[in-house]
Specification:
By secondary structure, the protein is mainly α. The chain has 3 domains: 52 residues; 104 residues, DNA polymerase, domain 1 (Orthogonal Bundle); 165 residues, hpI Integrase, Chain A, CATH 1.10.443. It is built from 13 helices and 8 strands. Strand 2 and strand 3 form a beta hairpin. Helix 6 runs antiparallel to helix 7 and helix 7 runs antiparallel to helix 9. The N and C termini lie far apart (65 Å).
Length: 376
């Protein structure tokens, strides 16, 4: 009826009862795993396994139920990410497997899905790769994309357990991929920061400068209201609103001299700090275009995302000796591992700078000096 197996020194029990799968972690003892298997087989014969009272549901119906849950509980951006995962998983299951019930999804199927995502053609814009130009298609989703999907599936299947659809999580034992193809974060040098601000249009200068001096996310700056700016205590409050929720909760960002000066000089044309000439909230999509145009004018290469200004803020904090927990808090990172990415990149930046030194060499009697990029 069942079997035991070992993975990474840990023994597990695996058996099917009335078409339902039971998997249990037994520990490091093979003998204990065999005893647990025997006990479960006896209970199954006696009808004493309570999990059989769990509800049955098709894979399609479950994911529809999950998406209804997501729409009620998640931000729009999060809803979209989960919807994308669901779309890819359903397409794989319908095409590559013969399973229809949620309880039939196994760890092996999730592992096969992981391989499928890394080896199948994908369109860069997320559309059907069979309906776009060849130049817009590449083989295999990025490792960090697949890892996000694995984590998302763990979350989704945990919810299925909570709803009594599953006894165990089929994604819990699936390991994430090494992220050697992660996108390199772009941050600006001191010279690039100055050139960007020097070439910025009058209405763009305060926007770009505040990004560089606060590290705010684009959505945080676009939705910033004057009631969020506390000049008395010298802080910017990232706080929830009826129409918008911060990505990682509420926090406060202290204003340095530059940030305070920028905000003090801005005209007030409504509730929002940054507006167009009609007093309307800025269009976030236009910010990126204006940044790209300014970067071209300033001859700054590879600057295509507003987020690069936020990366610059973080990297400069670390370069100037600010401790990681403080950087994490200022950036609003939920996980300090995210903050630590900037330590690796800043180290690479400093290594590149130090290679320019050749003190004592007859070929180079000049020394280089690493300087700050942004006042923080």
């Amino acid at each position: 009826m069942g079997q035991t197996y070992e993975r990474n020194g840990v023994h597990y029990v695996d058996l099917y009862v009335q078409g339902r799968r039971i998997r249990k972690k037994a520990g490091k003892s093979k003998k204990l795993a065999e005893l647990l298997l025997k006990d479960l087989e006896i209970k199954a014969e006696r009808g004493q396994l309570g999990f059989l009272d769990q509800k049955e549901i098709s894979i399609k119906d479950f994911f529809e139920e999950f998406q209804q849950y997501s729409q009620a509980n998640h931000r729009l951006a999060t809803q979209a990410r989960y919807a994308s995962v669901v779309k890819h998983v359903l397409a794989f299951i319908q095409k590559e497997t013969q399973v229809h019930r949620l309880t039939q999804i196994t760890t092996e199927i999730v592992e096969k899905y992981k391989i499928h995502r890394r080896t199948s053609l994908v369109a860069r814009n997320g559309s059907n790769p069979e309906k776009v130009k060849t130049s817009a298609v590449r083989k295999g989703a990025k490792a960090y994309t697949v890892n996000f999907e694995i984590v998302a599936l763990r979350t989704i299947f945990n919810l299925a357990m909570k709803w009594k659809y599953l006894d165990s999580n089929p994604a819990s034992l699936v390991k994430k991929l090494k992220t050697d193809d992660s996108k390199q974060r772009r941050f600006l040098t001191e010279s690039e920061c100055r050139r960007l601000l020097d070439h910025a249009e009058k209405e763009d200068y305060p926007v770009f400068a505040l990004f560089l001096n606060t590290g705010m996310r684009r959505s945080e700056l676009v939705n910033l209201e004057w009631s969020d700016v506390d000049f008395k205590n010298g802080v910017i409050k990232i706080q929830r609103k009826p129409f918008w929720l911060p990505k990682s909760g509420e926090r406060e960002i202290p204003m340095n001299e530059m940030a305070e000066e920028i905000l003090m000089k801005l005209p007030k044309r409504g509730n929002f700090v940054f507006t167009d000439e009609k007093g309307q909230k800025l269009n976030p999509d236009l910010l990126r275009k204006r940044l790209v145009d300014t970067a071209k004018e300033a001859k700054i290469d590879n600057l295509t995302e507003i987020h690069a200004l936020r990366h610059t803020f973080a990297s400069q904090l670390i370069t100037n000796g600010v401790d990681l927990p403080s950087v994490q808090k200022l950036m609003g990172h939920a996980d300090i591992q995210t903050t630590m990415i900037y330590t690796h990149q800043t180290t690479d930046h400093l290594k590149n700078a130090i290679t320019k030194l050749n003190i004592g060499s007859e070929k180079n009697q000049k020394s280089s000096r690493i300087v700050d990029t942004v006042k923080v």
